[in-house]
């Protein structure tokens, strides 16, 4: 069985970037239009209260962020280490992934405690509810 030789000019997509009308991404290559319902271009900066982890390459944090669960324990230490590494490095993402797994392990005792309390509480029957 012989390999078929195809010249580049015979391919249907050859030279698509010569003429803009032939490019499939042209309709998407326009700047996004603003929504009429938005009253701002960028939301106002949320006040920073407490520790906040951010990438070293960014001058300021994103306008809106969550501080509901601040980093704590070993997983928090791993996250602090990860955010010292630029996010284009694999070690940044591996450290965050490991921090997530460590956080799951750290939260297991609390989860088991909650379930044990629920199991001990007597359940009300339908006749008791009425």
Describe, in plain words, how this protein is organized in 3D.
The chain has 130 residues and is mainly alpha-helical. It has three helices and no strands. The protein has helices at 73-82, 90-120, 126-129. Helix 1 packs antiparallel against helix 2 (90-120). It starts with 72 loop residues before the first helix and ends with a helix.
Itemize the secondary structure elements and their pairings.
Layout: H1 73-82, H2 90-120, H3 126-129
Helix pairs in contact: 1-2
Shape: elongated
Low-confidence spans: pLDDT under 50, at least 5 residues?
none
Distance between the termini: 81 Å
Number of helical runs? 3
Q: How many runs of DSSP E, i.e. beta strands?
A: 0
Largest sheet composition: none
Quick synopsis:
Helices cover 35% and strands 0% of the residues. The chain has 3 helices and no strands.
List keywords for this structure.
mainly alpha, about 35% helix, elongated, about 130 residues
């Amino acid at each position: 069985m012989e390999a078929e030789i195809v010249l580049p000019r015979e391919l249907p997509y050859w030279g698509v970037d010569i003429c803009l009308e032939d490019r499939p991404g042209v309709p998407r290559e326009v700047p996004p239009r603003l929504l009429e319902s938005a009253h701002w271009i960028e939301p106002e900066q949320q006040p920073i209260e407490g520790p906040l982890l951010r990438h070293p390459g960014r001058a300021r944090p994103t306008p809106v962020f969550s501080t509901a669960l601040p980093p704590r324990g070993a997983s928090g230490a791993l996250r602090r280490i990860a955010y010292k590494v630029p996010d284009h490095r694999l070690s940044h993402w591996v450290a965050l992934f490991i921090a997530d797994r460590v956080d799951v392990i750290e939260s297991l005792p609390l989860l088991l405690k909650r379930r044990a309390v629920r199991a001990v509480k007597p359940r009300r029957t339908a006749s008791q509810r009425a």
